[in-house]
């Protein structure tokens, strides 16, 4: 990830603007790489659900699977198949021009997403924080994912999103976040698999 940070100013100031702009577009190389990293996390998590016998842990893994699936669909702009507005934004649900049926169809998977998200948040926040304080690598990766994804969304909602430099930084942060998500999933599921293998 340090390489991404080091590359960011190169992309902003040295890469020709048309190439730079194309690389950070919705169909650009960084968007594709971001989706690929999160997809790897999804596959690893699915494999883990087949290896973990504990039903409570397995339920949590399925909840995480759903969260990551929505994560991928958002990064892939899946919503563009039926609307120009992101279904994760409140503007979609308050726009009078969007049909109520579309809002309901989009609202159901988003409601499930938030149920899964808050379930994971309330059930595991204390545990994850304790592991961060103990410097467990997978927990540090979760922490870094949180920082980078929040930072990218702050930029997305700010005036920086209207300028090329801001859009590059946002895209690089999203790419880093995807990397940290993948690392967190691989490390944490490895810990879980080893724990149950020793039983």
Number of strands: 0
Strand fraction? under 5%
What is the helical fraction, as a range of percent?
over 70%
Count of spatially separate domains: 1
Which whole number gives the mean pLDDT?
87
Q: Could you say which structural class the secondary elements and strand pairing correspond to?
A: mainly alpha
The 3D shape can be described as globular
Query: Cα-atom Rg, whole angstroms?
Result: 18 Å
Order of helices and strands, N to C? Answer: HHHHHHHH
| Distinct helical segment count | 8
In the predicted model, the low-confidence regions spanning at least 5 consecutive residues are none
Mind summarizing the main beta sheet?
A: none
Euclidean distance between termini CA atoms: 35 Å
What brief labels describe this structure?
199 residues, 78% helix
Write the layout of secondary structure elements.
Layout (H helix, E strand, L loop, with lengths): L1 H12 L3 H7 L5 H23 L3 H21 L14 H5 L5 H34 L3 H20 L7 H34 L2
Helix pairs in contact: 1-8, 3-4, 3-8, 4-6, 6-7, 7-8
Summarize the structure.
With 199 residues, this protein is mainly α.
Descriptive notes:
With 199 residues, the chain is mostly helical. It has one domain. Helix content is 78%, strand content 0%. α4 crosses α6. The radius of gyration is 18 Å and the shape is globular.
